[in-house]
């Protein structure tokens, strides 16, 4: 029989239980559901007296069982199929309650009496009972029903009926409720109601409105953002602590429930997560999502989150990476419940490895590293060596009797991607930052990770999607050693265009002199983003908005920049700075001395403070704010076009242009008039300026790479080092900024009016300010 014929036969089978053709064909697309539904139908036919007669009501329940149940209780379906065929399970509500009971008690023998009680099996709620209870509920609420008619929230009525008739069919209850409400209230004719006009609340054009939040209410006026969990929403609805076995694909053993009870006794039912970075590099933007996910989910559920250093690779670990990781976690606003290291458990991990060998679930292998690469690795010729021999060889590995690469300990399991027998231990003669020279064998991630999760009683092991292939070995190893098994949940990695985040590639950029260090503001490490001036709230907001999905996420940096602007717009005080100064001398300055002006830090909300600046006969404006050949729509300063000065209340008019030897303007002689003087026309535009200003250095950053995906050989055949944007950093040492930045310290942030958002660089001194441009005021509209 061909595959096509097989499928047509299955469609006919599915239609025989009441599915329409479209639903039957949709079902075929899921091989697991197809297999399960076929088995379920055939088993039901064997139980029913009329072999080919499955009523539509029974068929609907058989379909629900096949699609709503979970793999770990498939072996118990025979109980539920019999209840369905005997019409003791009459509706989906009872079926789902029965499924939940079996998920919570997934061991033989099944206590059928308890199952029947928990799911209302055998309870028959008659139409007369439904009618009577609804009459009583409506009578209790009749006064309000008559007043509010169909505006009354009928959901509360249905909820009351459900409390009193827990196992009644929901459709039958809703139908009877509709009939009785129609009888009481008459037709629900909303069009007969008089239409009330929606009144719009308007604000006087002269009244200033204090902005309290951004347009979407994600950012408050103090810069605080809604939590990661609030914005990520339903994606965070995972299993409840202690209900690991309800998760699809979770593997049960006879000891699972006892281990789960011990787990709950230890944790008190708390959510327990962990953030487990390797201390061999600085965290990047992708890690920000992991930090928010792990710490944010725990915080949202009043749980705890460990910071666990995965320090199993001693060759690349440095103290600066340990401290740098903790620093960034705290900078993002999270406090670890406890700081642990994978190496804390090296002794226990070693003992468990010997247990695996004794159970004939691990062996010593002598295949070389190159032979173990890839997914089609041949079975090891040493896979079936005697247990005692492997135990002795493992001891020899520990005692330094083998050279690196001469022996490994491998586990007898197959990973989800088909890789055979992953390595559990390898030899490395390297000093370890924490354990010193005690060990010369080190456990791998595949061996260490799940066991550390078990030791720390992690309830939700959250990791990126590339670890999905390791999920089966994760469950296998915990169950092989009879230890508590957490649930591994995967989510898509976060990647940005126009950058690289690989530690190896960043190190290469540093060595080649392309960037200065891990915190070079052109990189997307979190230390680099902090130095550039990105607020932690903006990074958290960005992570929350992209949410938690299974798909790999590759985003344009503009989305992150937009979150930065949103936060800085309500948190960064305004000052005036001139990047490329042009001297302006006011020939009729109205005062003998400089005039002091008070300028609000946030013009839209003057209650948030102010600073003082000086206005004098010599000021500096941006070169770009003056032109001798203005276009038609030009609104700034020109020989025959006056212009206003921000915050000064004066309008200046050009009298003379002084030039250098290249005929370039170097100074303007102007006159000024008060903007409030009689007969003075309002200027087309206002420009910023400085006087008695502070000289400073401005560093402006652009994309480090020319192409969106610099490490994609199709886009950049020569490799990422050939794709460097040579104009990614511009330094201006002649900029001027007003006194609003006085006493600013490293990482303080400002909005330079009409220019952009800037942050104080750590290179600054008391006598020399250095500012990094964080983002422009508006999104860069160039093509990407």
From TrEMBL:
The keyword Iron-sulfur does not apply. PROSITE patterns: AA_TRNA_LIGASE_I. Residues 201-214 have a biased composition (Low complexity). Belongs to the class-I aminoacyl-tRNA synthetase family. Residues 686-761 form the tRNA synthetases class I (E and Q) anti-codon binding domain. Residues 190-200 have a biased composition (Basic and acidic residues). The keyword Endoplasmic reticulum does not apply. Residues 187-220 are annotated as: Disordered. Its EC number is 6.1.1.18. GO terms for biological process: glutaminyl-tRNA aminoacylation. It catalyses: tRNA(Gln) + L-glutamine + ATP = L-glutaminyl-tRNA(Gln) + AMP + diphosphate. This is Probable glutamine--tRNA ligase. Residues 270-569 form the Glutamyl/glutaminyl-tRNA synthetase class Ib catalytic domain. The lineage of its organism: Eukaryota, Metazoa, Spiralia, Gnathifera, Rotifera. CDD domains: GlnRS_core (cd00807). Residues 9-170, 173-261 form the Glutaminyl-tRNA synthetase class Ib non-specific RNA-binding domain. One of its GO terms (molecular function) is ATP binding. Keywords: Aminoacyl-tRNA synthetase, ATP-binding, Ligase, Nucleotide-binding, Protein biosynthesis.
